[in-house]
Design goal:
With about 160 residues, the chain is of the alpha+beta class. Helices cover about 45% and strands about 15% of the residues.
Length: about 160
């Protein structure tokens, strides 16, 4: 078998294993659009209660953007931050604030924010878990203080636990 045939065989075998594993898992690749929409709605309601204007992003288990809302008047510069917070939380399955604690000078993950095309390591990104504790996605929120961002993200993620 020549090199190209070996590469093609390896790719096909990998794809077959991926699809069979996905089928075995019931085809669940994470949060659905309906679930992501519910997360966004809960987060938006919390932001309105705070009187803040937020960008709210939800990614699925593969860190793909599934839902996004930019509240009227929310900072344009926070769009990218919200999406990166969601991706960061999913990449490491931990709140971005916790990752930030580990990324300080002298800590084990110092400079991690420069990996993966840029991460956000301050609060406002939270993994989304289902009722059984499986991470099915993440939410990222940006537009106010990190404390407010984090409260809004937590309110959104909490919807999936009800």
């Amino acid at each position: 078998m020549n090199y190209q045939a070996k590469v093609l065989f390896a790719v096909m075998l990998s794809l077959a294993m991926l699809f069979s594993a996905n089928a075995f898992a019931g085809g669940n690749v994470g949060i659905t659009l309906d679930q992501a929409s519910a997360v966004v709605a809960a987060a938006k309601a919390k932001a309105e209660k705070q009187g803040t204007l937020m960008n709210i992003a939800v990614v699925d288990a593969g860190a793909n953007l599934t839902a996004f809302v930019r509240m009227d008047g929310a900072f344009l510069g926070s769009v990218d931050i919200a999406i990166k917070k969601a991706k960061t939380a999913r990449f490491f399955n931990m709140p971005t604030g916790k990752l930030g604690e580990l990324a300080q000078p002298g800590k084990p993950l110092f400079n991690i924010e420069f990996s993966n095309g840029g991460l956000i390591t301050f609060p406002g990104g939270v993994p989304i878990k289902d009722k059984t504790g499986n991470v099915i996605g993440a939410i990222g929120v940006s537009g106010s203080s990190v404390e407010n961002d984090n409260e809004v993200a937590m309110a959104g993620a909490a919807v999936m636990l009800k």
